[in-house]
Design a protein that fits this description.
Rossmann fold; four-stranded parallel beta sheet; 2 domains; binds N-carbamoyl-L-aspartate; five-stranded parallel beta sheet; 14% strand; 9 strands; 35% helix; globular; alpha/beta
């Protein structure tokens, strides 16, 4: 006798609201925005990271996600987010369906719409990780998917919540706190989705000050300045490296987001605005300042800075991306609590 067991036959949310708060329970929730998280949700996630490090160090994959399939649907280029989600699922014994550049290599090229694409991949697996150039697409996908959680791997210049989770963990690991920090976020605060999500995360904690260093054209939008100030962040908008604070806790360098420009001349004008050099480090960094970057580094950090022990971008920040995504996938798929 043939017995059919459908893995995803339970509707994922009764509320129909994709921005559902985590509220201590990740199971089957879409992960679309840092605004779904509270400090205790972050603590819960972080609690699992040491175990994930041990599991990742084992030669054999863990069986936590054995039998699970996760679709990685990436409409925009990616190295770290795609690679670490893939590694995270595989480290835990699961498998991935890798849809890279669907505009060229899937039926999207034939004109298939997002609705149908999502409906198809939710039939094949247990979760969908999506990156897309348009703000709000992850949320749209989450509203379409009836049975599986959708995780936002970056939507245009909107949000990048899982990057913020790994950035927050990297800071937490170094300072053992996420409050009363002084940070410099340099580059492209207007367009950097990683800055937007990280600011959301830091605004959950008291006493955080952020210096946003950028050319005037790339300043954080007035809407965001108002939003984050209301949420309790102390912001300083600066356009000159000379105005950087001495001995901040965190430097977070971002790339000028070329793909968000319609006018390439405007891009050329600002593309190399703030370059992180050994000279800048010796002038402004403290002995405990850490240097972070979501990468790619394109035009912003001198390779001579890599060897500095305070540089975390090619060290813990990369590895934490995999550990954090391991814990997150296991939580969302209900394998750990
Ligand atoms: C970032 C992104 O895609 O937003 N990269 C990443 O996910 N680590 C940053 C960038 O592309 O500049």
């Amino acid at each position: 006798m043939l017995i059919l067991v459908f893995r995803n036959n339970i509707p994922k949310t009764m509320s129909g609201n994709s921005f559902t708060k985590i509220n201590g329970d990740f199971k089957h929730k879409d992960i679309l925005s840092l605004s779904q998280f509270s400090t205790s949700d972050l603590t819960l996630l972080f609690k699992h990271i040491p175990t994930m490090k041990v599991l990742a160090a084992n030669a054999k994959p863990s069986e936590l996600l054995a039998g699970n399939i996760v679709t990685l649907l990436f409409y925009e280029p990616s190295s770290r987010t795609f690679g670490s989600f893939g590694a995270a699922v595989k480290q835990l014994g699961g498998q991935t369906i890798d849809i890279i550049n669907p505009q060229q290599f899937s039926s999207v090229a034939k004109g298939e719409n997002l609705e149908d694409t999502i409906r198809v991949f939710e039939a094949y697996g247990d979760a969908i990780v999506i990156r897309h150039p348009e703000v709000g697409t992850a949320q749209r996908a989450a509203n379409i998917a009836q049975f599986v959680p959708v995780l936002n791997a970056g939507d245009g210049n909107g949000e990048h919540p899982t990057q913020a989770l790994l950035d927050l963990y990297t800071i937490y690991e170094k300072f053992n706190r996420l409050d009363n920090l002084t940070c410099v976020f340099a580059g492209d605060p207007l367009n950097s989705r990683t800055i937007h999500s990280l600011m959301d995360g830091l605004s959950l904690y008291n006493g955080n000050t952020i210096y946003l260093l950028s050319p005037k054209e790339l300043q954080l939008s007035q809407n965001d300045i108002t939003k984050f100030t209301k949420k309790g962040l102390k912001l300083h908008i600066i356009n000159n490296g000379k105005d950087m604070p001495k001995t901040a806790d965190v430097w977070y360098w971002t790339r000028v987001q070329k793909e968000r420009f319609t006018d390439l001349k405007a891009y050329d004008k600002v593309k190399d605005s703030f370059y992180l050099t050994k000279e800048l480090v010796s002038q402004f960094a403290g002995k405990d300042t850490i240097f972070m970057d979501p990468l790619p580094r394109v035009g912003k950090i001198d390779m001579l800075v890599d060897e500095d022990p305070r540089s975390e971008y090619l060290r813990s920040q990369i590895r934490n991306g995999m550990y954090v995504r391991m814990a997150l996938m296991a939580l969302v798929l209900g394998k750990i609590k």
